[in-house]
Amino acid sequence: MFGIFDGHGGARAAEFASKNLGENISAELSSSSRSDENAHGGACCVTALIQDGNLVVSNAGDCRAVMSRGGVAEGSLAVTRGIGDGHLKEFVIAEPETKVLRIEPDCEFLILASDGLWDKVSNQEAVDLIRHLCTDAEKPKPALACNQLAELAVRRGSMDDISVMIVQLARFLH
């Protein structure tokens, strides 16, 4: 299980989400959105669960998961979702968007990141920048890839928090 949580207006919603991942995520996220209608804090998140050769990616908010499939970026963004933000429940739902796919040999790596990256770097640009670091069979360098992506977003003027995680998918092939 991998995840990026991007809190806003305080850490309460992100902390709640990260502590309750082991339970039914959809039910927990939905209940957290209703637990305090007066709360002004909230969080966005993107998570990835890998089990038995399957990749399950869930997104609630403007964090994003992008997969490199043979060098081609595949990703999505759901901006009308979030955890908490009780005052926005008329417009924002907490039910995550979820996709399930089989990890195939051309599935190289997954980038999980907050909007601090995605506001300044496109899906394909991110894959193109770091692919050589993530597909080197002898010495992949995912930590260096994360740093390069974050540094690019900062150079382009990102003022938002930037969290980046790379998951090497080849090790999960069945």
Tell me what the structure shows.
Keywords: Hydrolase, Magnesium, Manganese, Metal-binding, Protein phosphatase. It is an enzyme of class 3 (hydrolase). Its EC number is 3.1.3.16. Belongs to the PP2C family. This protein has 174 residues and is α+β, with helices and mostly antiparallel strands. It has one domain: PPM-type phosphatase domain (Phosphatase 2c, domain 1). The chain has 5 helices and 8 strands, in the order E-H-H-E-E-E-E-E-E-H-H-H-E. Strand 2 and strand 3 form a beta hairpin. It starts with a strand and ends in a 6-residue tail after the last strand.
> Uncertain segments of ≥5 residues (pLDDT<50)?
28-38, 79-88
For the record, what is the CATH homologous superfamily label?
A: PPM-type phosphatase domain
Number of helices: 5
The CATH C-level class name: Alpha Beta
Mean pLDDT reading: 79
What's the CATH architecture? 4-Layer Sandwich
First CA to last CA: what distance? 17 Å
The total count of strands amounts to 8
Rg, nearest Å: 16 Å
What is the global morphology? globular
Family: Belongs to the PP2C family.
GO molecular function: metal ion binding; protein serine/threonine phosphatase activity
Enzyme class: hydrolase
EC number: 3.1.3.16
